[in-house]
Design a protein that fits this description.
homodimer; alpha+beta; six-stranded mixed sheet; 562 residues; 17 helices; 39% helix
Chain lengths: 562, 562
């Protein structure tokens, strides 16, 4: 370069395209490969989630086996095998060794995977940390052979590299198996593979999971039902959620010949009447050719849509777990005294329908000293990391649990022997990162979660307060029974009565006290254990739940919260 | 599809490639476009960061103007213009209307941008929310004309669409201007454009920023120095950070003909001696052809690298602000009594060199009742969102600020009239999301931040404790001066002395008390204001900083922390 040349020419030489694989190789922590422990979990999660999606799409009750073998220090072999529909030969390399390739991204219906990144990212991570290829076997039915592949990703091009490809014998009639060698670290406890599989079983009562950990015995999570979840139906976008840029590109790509037919065929909930009304509202002709609609007309069209009353999007695109099965799943895995569950009606954020469900298990073997345990789910997948960054956590913290009989400090989860489950089902769950660990704080979603928590909370509150009342009653009765004999014997000494007279007086005293108690109850005074300050402070339990019992006027307060 | 066909064939039809633009259009919150307010800030941030990078690469003192015009409710026009080197004609469309295209991704040297996503994402967001194209003008020197473009992104293909392209007259000799119409929301306060620009000025004392907000007067942030920051030099990767997968692909792509020359040319800090030693350590021949090295040999090579002592990576790839300029910048923008700054020696995470710097401004007009203000920076760019998710915040919370004279509750930032600045400079800053708002918790980074905070904290502690001692001294003196005259006049009444005798006695008393005080000081008793419990509780200030004064043994405690 001579002195005279503008520096821009020199700078220009460095400009180049960056493949999405290179991008994520360098930013692997965005995909859940921050550290060896999380990397191992993420890999299993991506494989199992894909298997579950495939089985459900093909209407097959999923049977999935997961095997983790420790090969050397920090090196593991992971094998995940399913009985799903299998993958056609020519797509195997693309599905497992190419980022941003998949079937679920453009589809508006609930599924676990959505991005087309996860499993290929696992293959890339395995290759990066051990230099070894992914080994895939898949078969689509007994009439077709099983295909075996050894695959690598060419990260610079984000294209699959086929190392080996052959037909093999496989006893399975249909299904897919993936084998990966990767750097990892295996530990039990929170955020472990064991925990992920257990939590998966809770909200997917129709699946069978067979798990062989690196050490110890095989674990089997048996299915609790033979009924498949209701299949989520693909929908078209709802007109209320469409933005002008998206509308313009839809108008450019459509095969419809008129504006009216465009509206009817590209959106959900628009019939010919509604389509005409939208056009009329802003003086556009229903027979305008979509390609002749310019930016300004598109802006008017959006206006027309906003002005027209259109019914809410269909919700068969979502397949919630349902109150009954959610509670059943929770009962199976957590030993408690009280269970409740709620499923909210569908709502919409940015045009995407979603449903929030919540369930609580209270008491039993759960620790009363610790924070409530929070189990978060999105489209039936447990979320184990980034609890603090999640909309579910914020909503749980902002709920007034004291109203429901649990103690709670400002800005914290409540304390008590309880497990809270929250499930968000949507055609597109907005995660805070590609690793899909926490849900973004869209206001509509935060609001729905809070409403679900309040519904569950009210049911819980009734139980907790009743339980406290019974304990309180028991204690009063104990006092009466403890002190009356002393009064009797004192009277006996003072006025020199007989044993039978003593018993009679004791009986009368007990009756009188029980009666007073009954009357106090009728006017609602001792319904609230907080009424008698001294008595309330006798039991240890009351002390722990400082101030939590002030439950009068619950409903009003919770309504004001929003 | 007949009944007989395997379902896999049907499922296969839905598989397709997803363009990275489609991916981020749907996941726009990952890029900082969660809501209209943040979207407006993100757009300006991306444009300004690019301008600053370009100016610095071309060794031009940056002069950047930012204009925000409110066009209608929630619709804004943003114009950012710089005096940078300009962009060559044929690259303008790619740089502004194609995601994952840029010059900084593969380069190992410090820069603000790194992903090749930001500005094109802003163009995409503008197009999506207003349907309008981006307008770009750029010129590389007086001998070349200025080029004007109107650009759109074809999101399905992630390719630029050129709406208009022409040569225009432009008074600027070189520079770039971008104009975008987008949905936004303008508010002052935290996380505002004003705040971002002000914070940018603090750590970039060499830049001039002219800002025209939608309402109100123009704001000019003048430069504080004519000296450009030291230019960051591009380096090769350090061998200690290389993973086997990366090594295998480097071996496949290299033009070197022997293993020895490969090691010398592709890595930093490897001369011929070190290269030979690496090979010797694991019995590989230095003249092996790189293409003949298989996976197992590559694994041995990694082993050989680990066994060999190689000096730390060069650090001229990083351009820290420096203690002096950091303090100067802070002085310019924050009115305080005490300032200190520290720059740590370089460290390495995952093979990437980085430097942590910290500075504190204490006292003055800052509120003593609030939490310490935290200003986070990465590669000279202020981070305004997701403070809670950032490694800087975690490190600041985990530092024992009580040792340095500030009060602090467990798990919270300290309370006091202080602003803390933390800057991380690296060839690759690991952010928790593409929106580059928070730094990921790599243990090496967390550790360095803590060390920087402790260094600054110790300097602060000396000042705060000295100030407290002086206040305490002053109070003692006040007491002596208040009470001695009373003693004098009492004596006068009791023993009937003259006025002059009274004065003399008062003088003697004062002297005696001062002397005692002096001796107490010598033996170190009243050095600690906490010594006299009663006295310490007199001033309001002490009360507020409950227990913060226990400063003896600071150094030991802070060393034990790590």
């Amino acid at each position: 370069m001579t002195e005279e040349e503008p520096i821009a020419l020199e700078l220009a030489k460095k400009q180049r395209e960056i493949s999405v694989a290179s991008f994520f190789e360098k930013n692997r922590h965005l995909l859940g490969f921050d550290n060896p422990r999380k990397a191992l979990l993420t890999t299993i999660k991506e494989a199992v989630d894909n298997s579950l999606d495939a089985c459900e799409e093909a209407n097959i009750l999923p049977e999935i086996s997961v095997e983790v073998i420790e090969m050397s220090e920090n090196k593991f072999k992971v094998i995940v095998e399913d009985n799903g529909p299998g993958i056609v030969k020519k797509q195997i390399p693309h599905i497992f060794a190419r980022l941003l390739y998949g079937s679920k991204f453009f589809k508006l219906s609930q599924s676990r995977g959505q991005q087309g990144i996860g499993i290929s990212a696992s293959v890339m991570y395995a290759q990066l940390t051990t230099g070894r290829s992914a080994k895939i076997t898949s078969r689509i039915d007994p009439k077709h052979p099983a295909h075996y592949y050894e695959l690598r990703i060419d990260t610079h091009k984000n294209k699959p590299g086929i190392q080996k490809e052959e037909i093999v014998k496989w006893e399975k009639e249909h299904g897919t198996k993936i084998e990966l060698d990767l750097e990892g670290s295996y530990q039990k406890g929170d955020q472990s593979i064991d925990r992920y599989l257990k939590q998966t079983a809770i909200v997917n009562p129709h699946i069978t999971l067979i798990y062989q950990p690196p050490k110890g015995e095989q674990v089997i999570f048996a299915k609790a039902t033979d009924i498949m979840p209701k299949k989520a139906i693909e929908i078209k976008p709802h007109p209320y959620g469409v933005e002008i840029g998206r509308l313009i590109s839809m108008l450019a790509l459509t095969e419809s010949r008129t504006l009216q037919s465009f509206l009817m065929s590209e959106f959900s909930r628009i019939g010919s009447g509604t389509a005409k009304q939208i056009c009329e509202n802003v003086s556009l002709l229903p027979n305008t050719k979509p390609r002749n609609i310019n930016r300004d007309m598109a802006e008017k069209l959006i206006e027309g849509i906003q002005k027209t009353k259109i019914i809410a999007p269909p919700t068969d695109c979502i397949s919630p777990i349902g109150e009954e099965l959610l509670e059943k799943g929770l009962r199976k895995e957590i030993n408690a005294e009280f269970y409740c569950a709620t499923t909210r009606p569908p709502a919409v954020y940015r045009g995407n329908p979603f449903v929030v469900e919540a369930a609580i298990a209270y008491g039993g073997e759960q620790s009363a000293e610790d924070s409530m345990k929070l189990l978060r789910y999105a489209n039936r997948v447990p979320l184990l990391y980034q609890q603090g960054a999640c909309a579910v956590t914020r909503s749980a913290i902002n709920t007034m649990w004291r109203n429901y009989g649990l103690s709670q400090s400002r800005g914290a989860l409540p304390v008590g022997p309880a497990t809270l489950v929250v499930h968000i089902a949507s055609v597109w769950v907005p995660f805070t990162s590609e690793s899909k660990e926490a849900i973004a704080h869209y206001p509509e979603i935060v609001k729905e979660i809070k409403l679900a928590l309040q519904e569950c909370g009210r049911k819980l509150g009734l139980y907790v307060n009743k339980k406290k009342r019974i304990q309180f009653e028991g204690k009063k009765r104990d006092y009466i029974q403890t002190f009356i004999p002393h009064i009797g014997s004192a009277l006996k000494n003072l006025i020199n009565i007989s044993d039978s007279e003593e018993k009679k007086i004791e009986g009368l005293l007990a009756e009188a006290l029980e009666k007073t108690r009954g009357e106090l109850e009728k006017v609602g005074v001792i319904d609230n254990p907080d009424y008698d300050g001294e008595m309330a402070s006798i039991g240890k339990e009351e002390k722990k739940e400082e101030g939590a019992e002030k439950s009068e006027g619950n409903e009003k307060q919770t309504t004001l919260e929003d």
